[in-house]
Specification:
8-stranded antiparallel β-sheet, 38% strand, binds guanosine-5'-diphosphate
Length: 366
């Protein structure tokens, strides 16, 4: 095991990427860290790594922060909600030759909805266009981020091909990372499960990012829904063995008394006795500003919260419809129970045609 001040320590800070497809997110992660996000994905699929696929970025003092790249629009949305409590900073990637695109807008709205509040913009592919177009793209970006958490945030021009701007991005990320307050591990332990598998000689392993609290080796946890109890036999945080995992850390729990076949992504591991699954969720919902239509009563929707998504019916409580960019009080009547608590962030999508409607905060359960 590494000592806490070892230069190998992964600072418990996670940087996520966002932005339109093909704007250079994976290429940027690779250029900054030397690690290919696609390789991490493969390793994860083959079970070679049990963390969430972080590419470590070395800070100037030798410490590392984790850079996570989530390829694909659908996966981005699911993972953003799942990792909402785990992503401390975001790099919004906009290609200089393309400018702000629909998914750039949607990702930014989703980041706001899940509560990410710090980050920067990388204006990529500047080697492909002339100065004038870079200027235009930058103006586009400044307009986009107005009124959002990225207003006034650094916009750095970069080319992964020539290397221009890479050092500046590293320096900016370092500055931003050092300013992130350590996350509190107060409160009751709760971790939505991202992955479940069985490891030879160990048994059931679940991974995820705890949203609150901490858990130690030897403690008992409850698995929801279902309420089955299990014991924590071993723990890892960021791929290293440890005797405690806490809110915000990428964690793996080795559990006894439970068959991995009975567990799945979407379930929740928690301190016993505190949470119960619910089917009616009251919430404050904000419609995406870029939505092409109002949100109307009785829409069939999918509620994404934690690592789970559940189908249900949307009931508007205080108005007939919610126009783009506006908010309202709603109730989501779910077909299957979810584990959520007041203050949880969620994203709401229309079932058909599939589109993101908006998101917000859970107010209460009934
Ligand atoms: P992602 O979908 O946002 O992850 O985009 P990728 O990282 O896969 O990049 C999409 C394409 O753009 C690839 O062919 C990259 O080689 C190319 N690309 C990415 N960054 C740059 C850059 O700075 N300059 C140039 N010329 N091409 C780039």
């Amino acid at each position: 095991m590494q000592s806490p001040d070892s230069h190998h320590e992964i600072r418990p800070i996670v940087i996520g990427t966002a932005g339109h497809i093909d704007h250079g997110k994976s290429t940027l992660v690779r250029a900054l860290t030397g690690v290919d996000p696609d390789r991490l994905k493969e390793e994860r699929e083959r079970g070679l790594t049990i963390d969430l696929g972080f590419a470590p970025l070395e800070l100037s003092d030798g410490r590392h922060v984790g850079l996570v790249d989530v390829p694909g629009h659908e996966r981005f949305i699911r993972n953003m909600v799942a990792g909402a409590t785990g992503v401390d900073l975001v790099v919004l990637v906009v290609a200089a030759d393309d400018g702000v695109m629909p998914q750039t807008r949607e990702h930014l709205s989703i980041l706001e909805m899940v509560g990410v509040n710090r980050g920067m913009v990388a204006l990529t592919k500047i080697d492909m266009v002339d100065e004038e177009l870079v200027e235009l793209a930058e103006e586009d970006v400044r307009e986009l981020v107005e009124g959002t958490f990225l207003e006034g945030a650094p916009v750095q021009r970069v080319s992964a091909h020539t290397g221009e701007g890479l050092d500046e991005i590293k320096a900016l990320l370092e500055e931003l990372a050092l300013a992130v307050e350590p996350r509190s591990a107060e409160g009751v332990f709760r971790m939505p499960i991202q992955r479940v598998f069985s490891l030879k000689g160990f048994g059931t392993v679940v991974t995820g990012i705890p949203g609150s609290g901490s858990v130690r080796v030897g403690e008992q946890v409850e698995i929801l829904p279902g309420g089955k109890l299990a014991k924590v036999r071993g723990l890892q945080a960021y791929g290293e063995t440890t005797d405690i995992v806490r809110a915000g850390h990428s964690s793996a729990l080795n559990l006894t008394d439970v068959d991995h076949k009975r567990l799945s992504r979407g379930a929740v591991i928690a301190t016993p006795g505190y949470f119960r699954p619910i089917s009616m969720v009251a919430a404050r919902l904000t419609a995406l500003p870029s939505l092409g239509r109002p949100i109307t009563n009785r829409m069939t929707v999918r509620l994404h919260t934690g690592t789970h998504d559940a189908r249900g019916e949307l009931v508007l409580l205080d108005r007939d419809e919610i126009p783009p960019g506006e908010e309202g009080l709603v109730q989501v009547r779910l077909e299957e129970p979810v584990v959520s608590a007041p203050g949880d962030r969620f994203v709401l999508r229309l079932l058909s045609p599939v589109m993101t409607l908006g998101g917000g905060v859970v107010l209460e359960e009934s």
